[in-house]
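Hi R.,

Here's the chain you asked about this morning:
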Amino acid sequence: MDVYESLIDVAVDREEITVVGAIPATESVKEFRERTREQRIEVAREAEELYRRKVAWAVQSGDDRILFTHLAVPVMTRLRQPERQVLDTLVAGGVARSRADALAWCVRLVGRNTDEWLTELRDSLAKVQQVRAAGPDVSDDSGAADSQKSGSE
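And the predicted structure, written out as tokens:
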């Protein structure tokens, strides 16, 4: 897939795959979007069918990352009064338009200020997945039956 001049990042979560790439220095984001629209649609269709997730696109130019065709997914949570008061203060102070915006603002703030910790946590989760994959196949019941027999003999 040669959509971008170079691929910078691919981020995946339960709902979405975000593909970030660099565009030629001589091309604007608008020009890039228009020039690659059909190709991106084709790639997205194939990936969405294969991975059962939506595909989002972004470009990076210097320190700026511009996202387009991306999802905003609702997330439900239960908050106690002190937590709701934090959100209400952000709304009253004009930082956010609603509790939902205030919660999104808090998540972005935590993400920015704890980037190192979150990276370490993600790395640890990846290691746990590797260890699980290397372990025994727990879906195979034959081994469990054998161990029960030997213990009762």
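The radius of gyration is 23 Å.

Let me know if you need anything else.
M.
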